[in-house]
Amino acid sequence: MVAFSPRLEIALDIAATAHQAQFRKIRGTPFIVHPVHIAIILLKYGFSEEVVMAGLLHDVVEDTEMGLAPIREQLGERVAALVAHMTDAPYGERDHLIWEAQRAILLEHLLHGDPDVVAIKVADSLHNLATLNLELQANGISMWERFSRGAVPTLEFHRKVLVVAEQVLGNHPMVAELQDVIDQAAKLSGIGTL
Asked: Nearest to residue 154, comparing CAs of 170, 141, 169?
């Protein structure tokens, strides 16, 4: 088994190029850190290269002007399909959907969709909440002022992702890890259990 993958390198190049001018709301780091960490989580838990590539690219269509065509052309239909399932709405087209409606649509897709898509979403939630917990530990609950929905709706959404993940992925260790970071976020936010 070799460690280097040309296809994974292509996926990383696409993601890095697409997100090059973006920064994370949490901690202000370059945005590319987020999809790379999702790929690391998926690799850690033994998911296929196609799932890892889709994890790297999961926000590209939604948050940048790049469409699915370059992904499909360079990485194939399976990776493009996984990215499409992770996309609430293509860049510039989601303004008409309110946050709650977007999340309800995503949860419905997850519940009745591909388990690999659920795994990518779990890795996404896991990284988002783990970095959020670092920020809560460093700066307290004032960190929530950067989020338009605040602590309770945000954490309730991640709890719903967890419920879907339990149904689709069962007792996968990544699901248990998500449970832990949700509980920690609620505790650090002064909410208790959701």
From this structure: 141
DSSP summary character for residue 97: S
User: What domains can be seen in the chain, in order of their start residue?
Assistant: 6-188 (1.10.3210.10)
User: d(Cα 92, Cα 95) in Å, to the nearest integer?
Assistant: 7
CA distances for 95 relative to 2, 14, 86, 98, 150, angstroms: 43, 25, 17, 7, 19
DSSP 114: -
The Cα 190–Cα 187 span in angstroms is 5
pTM higher than 0.90 for the full model? yes
Per-residue pLDDT tens for 127-145? 999 999 999 999 999 888 8
- Residues annotated as catalytic are 62-63
